[in-house]
UniProtKB/TrEMBL annotation:
Annotated PANTHER family: HYDROXYMETHYLPYRIMIDINE_PHOSPHOMETHYLPYRIMIDINE KINASE THI20-RELATED, PHOSPHOMETHYLPYRIMIDINE KINASE
Protein species of origin: Parapedobacter deserti
Enzyme Commission number(s) from the entry: 2.7.1.49
Pfam families, alphabetized: Phos_pyr_kin
Biochemical pathway: Cofactor biosynthesis; thiamine diphosphate biosynthesis
Protein's name according to its UniProt entry: hydroxymethylpyrimidine kinase
Keyword Electron transport recorded: no
Group of enzyme by EC: transferase
Domain spans labelled Pyridoxamine kinase/Phosphomethylpyrimidine kinase: 18-265
Keywords: Kinase, Transferase
Length: 279
């Protein structure tokens, strides 16, 4: 008698390295694992960083990036893809070429341009390539306020600024935009989700004091990809992803890891790997 076989919902993260463990591929793998999905990865860059900031960034050969992605796609096909650090126009082309055969896999793109520490992580000439080529394949793009200011070419300091900037970014060609409000100077932090129909949805959480937000953007985009991989629609995935990040920060707020912006507690409520029938 043959035993019934199953599969795990799989999420591929295409992102940079973080030796301090809170952001980048390390943060993504923690998030994906904590939410009951199976994590695969392709490394795009080797930043030298800790909780206090980025010291330098070493490139990964483009051919190596291409081969990493193709090798994973040939064997462990993902239910969703998260794309993080893409710091050159050539890397944009490399990723697009590798994904070209798989246009129907949902992509969550976190346009990593500015680190939590304030360090700029992207070359100026790369922005046009990202907008022109990566935005059209993304189900949702997740800029923070600093990144939204770059993309919308305007100051983004208030909720009204966010509304205007989010609408501008959505017009650049992506299906939907989650503009994260973690840098708002307000007692409640509000993020805005601009959906495929052009409707705007607000998600608000009470502010609390903590330095442990390193990797929050990476974690959020990976969480959204996980919930998409598990079959939720975009609005549900965005809402569930934000609740997960809020709780992960809340459960880490009194812990000290390093001397700068510490990591989230990704495993505050870890889930077992989900099993789906193998079709």
């Amino acid at each position: 008698m043959n035993r019934k076989k199953y599969r795990y919902p799989s999420v591929l993260t295409i992102a940079g390295f973080d030796g301090s463990g809170g952001a980048g591929i390390q943060g993504d793998i923690k998030t994906i694992s904590a939410l009951g999905c199976y994590a695969t990865s392709a490394l795009t860059a080797l930043p030298i960083q800790n909780t206090q900031g980025v010291r330098t960034i070493y490139p990964i050969p483009y051919q190596a990036v291409n081969e990493q992605i193709e090798t994973i796609l040939d064997d462990i096909f993902p239910d969703a893809i998260k794309i993080g650090m893409v710091h050159t126009a050539e890397l944009v082309s490399t990723i697009l070429d590798a994904l070209a055969r798989y246009p129907h896999v949902p992509v969550v793109f976190d346009p990593v341009m500015v680190a939590t520490s304030g360090d700029k992580l992207i070359e100026d000439k790369t922005i046009a390539a990202i907008v022109e080529r990566l935005f059209p394949i993304a189900a949702v793009v997740t800029p923070n306020m600093d990144e939204a200011a770059i993309l919308a070419e305007m100051p983004v300091r208030t909720l009204d600024d966010m509304r205007l900037a989010g609408a501008k970014i959505r017009q650049l060609g992506c299906r939907s935009v989650l503009l994260k409000g973690g840098h708002l100077d307000a007692p409640r932090l509000t993020s805005l989700y601009f959906d495929e129909a052009g409707d705007v949805h607000e998600f608000s959480f009470d502010r609390f004091e903590t330095n442990n937000t390193h990797g929050s953007g990476c974690t959020l985009s990976s969480a959204i990809a996980c919930f998409i991989a598990q079959g939720r629609n975009l609005l549900e995935a965005v809402g569930a992803g934000q609740e997960y990040v809020h709780q992960a920060i809340l459960h880490s707020r009194d812990v000290q890891v390093g001397h700068g912006n510490g990591p989230l507690n990704h495993f505050f409520n870890p889930l077992e790997l989900k099993k789906y029938d193998l079709v």
